């Protein structure tokens, strides 16, 4: 091994420029700008992800506390006092009526009067108002709407079937 100014140089012909000879082993040290930038970029992205996760308290959403109550709740279908929607086919007119307007705290009941399985699935809803219920033939599902808003929905199995619940 030669010594002098700079790092030790390996006398082996296997060594290349930028390599060091340590006890007969060749260790390649690549010191290029691209690899340093890649490593620095990785740590910057990692720091950004950690920062965006938030801190303080854990719990719901990283901010502590409990999750907000949904504005649409699945409930057992009552004997009466519901706004009824029939599911009659797999066409655009599959929900009848296609649009209902109800007061807050109203239960809407979907009854599948056809012979195929359908769903009642939210598409655009206010925060905490998502829903996705399967409705088998001859079965009903009920959802209680506890706050005002516009709730668009569809059958996820037959997306041409759409409906709207407006809660005032």
Describe the structure.
12% of the residues lie in helices and 39% in strands. By secondary structure, it is mainly beta. The chain folds into two domains: 1-56, no CATH class; 72-167, Immunoglobulin-like (Sandwich), CATH 2.60.40.420. It has a five-stranded mixed β-sheet with strand order 3-10-7-4-5, with no helix packed on it. Strands 6-12-11-8-9 form a five-stranded mixed β-sheet, with no helix packed on it. The termini are far apart.
* Mean pLDDT, all residues: 76
Strand content: 35-45%
From the alpha-carbon coordinates, what is the Rg to the nearest angstrom?
32 Å
SSE sequence, one letter per element:
EEHEEEEEEEEEE
Q: Tell me which CATH architecture of the largest domain applies here.
A: Sandwich
Would you identify the regions where 5 or more consecutive residues have pLDDT less than 50? 55-63
The CATH fourth-level homologous superfamily of the largest domain: Cupredoxins -  blue copper proteins
Domains (count): 2
CATH topology of the largest domain, anyone? Immunoglobulin-like
How much helix, percentage-wise, in residues?
10-25%
Which structural class fits the helix and strand makeup? mainly beta
Number of strands: 12
Q: What's the main sheet like? A: 5 strands, mixed
Strand order of the largest sheet: 3-10-7-4-5
Gross morphology: globular
